[in-house]
Specification:
InterPro entries: CD36/SCARB1/SNMP1 (IPR005428), CD36_fam (IPR002159). This protein is an alpha+beta fold. Helix content is 25%, strand content 26%.
Length: 416
């Protein structure tokens, strides 16, 4: 009996081993199947979570982001405007600020287009001054270039003699100078009146381009609470293809820009909220900026940790602000007035005002610009533009968007 039980035990052990081996084989096969299928499963989950639809989890944070956004504005106080015509003296700039505003963004006029998986909208933002986060008051007085007079002179320099004389006469009649002294509040959101603006509005035929669309000048005049200044967007939702999510398909109802030619006319950069998931370090980031009416390229710099989360840091470099001097493919951004590399001519989309954008303090720009003024000290930490993205989801972890607005000052025959 003991022997039989012994044989029975051996048989049961053999069957158990067989069952375990079979189960192990099945689990191994299932594991291989799951591993093979996991990327597709993960992509499907990611697409459901991230793609933008009226009832998706990403809709609310896209429409009204809950993160705190700060707009820090620094202004240059021109301390020696009386020496402008003295060729032995450079303009001296004193940086003041920051003047911090808390930005509350929103989206308006949202229209869904399921037939092509896009959404149309306008961007709106409310700005609230933050005195505690600021260094200075909105009542601080700043001496700066007279943008209105410079814009008038720049536009008129190619006009027929009669029209040019009218502008020149207006400048003399109204006592226009090359510089103005205004309060920070006036230079930014409140705006200030100028007789040249009134003249242009009362005689639209003088400008040759129709009625002037504003009654005051201020860098952010009418922007607070407005949704019309940054234009009309049409953006891919990623519902059909996550590689397209956040990409601008049309801006102001067009898929190309009238201000540039060739590849430079494209609008197909990110709208700034969504970036495609599954990033590689070699893929550049393209961002469309409505304020500059163009897309910008950012290249991978390094891996960084943001609150214990791995991110790829993409930064703006020489290529971002080049106009063909360093990278021939950027020549189409020159826009008729090729200047040394480092500043971007956006005058065509700023009502003809000779506006050029650069990184602050001419960071990454040709030394020509720093040599022309005093008081500027470029630094990557203070003046670089970077975007940190979580590579798997494409979610932004950190963004520092820094730019400087510059005005071209040049003599024009027939304009004093």
């Amino acid at each position: 009996t003991l022997q039989l039980r012994g044989k029975g035990v051996k048989m049961r052990r053999s069957c158990t081993s067989c069952a375990l081996a079979t189960s192990g084989l099945i689990l191994t096969i299932l594991g291989i199947i799951i591993i093979a299928a996991w990327p597709s499963v993960f992509d499907a989950i990611l697409q459901k979570q991230l793609s933008l639809t009226p009832d998706s989890e990403s809709y609310k944070p896209w429409k009204t982001p809950a993160v705190t956004l700060n707009l820090d504005i620094y202004l240059f106080n021109w301390t020696n405007p009386e020496d402008l015509t003295n060729t032995s003296t450079k303009p001296i700039m004193e940086q003041l600020g920051p003047y911090r505003f808390r930005e509350v963004p929103d989206k308006e006029n949202i229209t869904w287009h399921p037939e092509n998986n896009t959404v149309s909208f306008r961007k709106k933002a409310d700005f609230f001054f933050d005195p505690e986060g600021s260094v200075g008051s909105l009542d601080d007085e700043i001496t700066t270039v007279n943008v209105v007079a410079l814009a008038a002179g720049h536009q008129a320099h190619n006009w027929p003699t009669l029209r040019k004389s009218a502008v020149n006469m207006g400048m003399g009649l109204y006592g226009e100078e090359r510089h103005v002294t205004k309060r920070v509040q006036e230079l930014l959101f409140d705006g200030f009146e100028d007789p040249l603006i009134d003249m242009a509005r009362s005689m639209p035929s003088l400008t040759g381009g129709g009625a002037v669309p504003f009654d005051k000048f201020g860098w952010f005049y009418t922007r607070n609470g407005s949704s019309h200044l940054t234009g009309h967007f049409n953006m891919a939702t990623g519902a059909d293809d996550m590689s397209k999510i956040g990409r601008v398909e049309r801006w102001n109802y067009a898929d190309h820009l009238p201000f540039f030619e060739k590849e430079c006319a494209g609008v197909d950069g990110s709208s700034g909220t969504f970036y495609p998931p599954g990033r590689s370090r070699e893929d550049p980031v393209w961002l469309f900026s409505p304020d500059m009416c163009r897309k910008l390229r950012f290249d991978y710099e390094k891996d960084v940790m943001v609150k214990d989360v791995l991110g790829y840091k993409y930064t703006g470099g020489d290529r971002t602000v080049d106009n063909g001097t360093l990278y021939p493919e950027n020549e189409c951004f020159c826009n008729g007035e090729c200047v040394p590399s480092g500043v971007m001519n956006i005058s065509a989309c700023r009502y003809g005002t000779p506006v050029f954008m650069s990184f602050p303090h001419f960071y990454k720009a040709d030394p020509y610009y720093l040599d022309a003024v005093e008081g500027l000290e470029p630094s990557q930490d203070k003046h670089g533009f970077h975007i940190v993205l979580e590579p798997t989801t494409g979610i932004p972890l950190d963004v520092a968007a820094r730019f400087q607005v510059n005005i071209l000052m040049a003599p024009h025959p027939g304009i004093k």
